[in-house]
Write a structure and sequence with these properties.
Helices cover 13% and strands 31% of the residues. The chain contains one helix and four strands, in the order E-H-E-E-E.
Length: 70
């Protein structure tokens, strides 16, 4: 199991369904359904963006992804 501070690489296969379903997967907390707050840290030297997301309502959903800029 990855440590709490580990980021995982984004896989587009995890996004499925129509546009509303994909928005829900990205924006909504999987625990309580509240809207996640996203923050991004760009690293243009390594061509990545680190994304963190947390739910302000329940504190859960600490999602950490690495997006590859290509």
């Amino acid at each position: 199991m990855p440590a709490d501070s580990d980021y995982k690489f984004e896989h587009f296969e995890e996004y499925f369904g129509d546009i509303d379903q994909v928005k829900k997967i990205i924006d909504d907390c999987p625990t309580c359904g509240g809207k996640l707050v996203h923050s991004h840290l760009s690293d243009y030297k390594n061509l990545i963006v680190q994304e963190s997301a947390r739910c302000p309502e329940c504190g859960a959903g600490n999602k950490k992804l690495i997006h590859i800029i290509n």
